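Today's session is about reading a structure prediction critically. Students often jump straight to the picture, but the first step is always the sequence itself: look for stretches that repeat, for charged clusters, for runs of hydrophobic residues. Only then move on to the predicted structure, which in these notes is written as discrete structure tokens rather than atom positions. Here is the chain we will use throughout the hour.
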Amino acid sequence: MNKTVVQRGLYFEEINVGTTYVHRPGRTVTETDNVLFTTATMNTQALHLDAAWSGTQPFGQRLVNSMFTLATVVGQSVTQLTQGTIVAQLGLTDVTFPHPLFHGDTLYTETVVTDKRLSSSRPGQGIVTMAHTGRNQHGVVVATASRSCLMWTEEGHRNALEAAGTAPGSAEG
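Below is the predicted structure for this chain, in token form.
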């Protein structure tokens, strides 16, 4: 018997405040990752690009671009929490980088759900607040951020898909 499994994140009602989600696998960051991200975003900071100059600075080597670190921390949570169940990212606050990430470090992320509530203006949707923490392979915290997302409830998502004609079993879905 053939079976279809669609990977998705969690619906609003499946998320519980206080739950910690540990995201795996980790992501080993390479020099190429850092240089491509840094140049693609037009960030000419020598701390990311100039090995000789960075070697004379307090950390003695190039640092991974902190925006790459933040994007990866958030990205590592997607498949487990928000893949296909997010309506929109509402904001990031309290972003910190207490220790740099270096080329060759492996980034591991965990997320704690800190709050959730149904939306008062958007039926079938709710707002979830998460605290992301990224650590290197030694367990040293390299990034933290609080993130709020507008999430679908299961019923709200199903109703939206049916209205759009893209629900499983619909003429177009």
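Discussion point for the tutorial: The longest helix spans residues 66-82.
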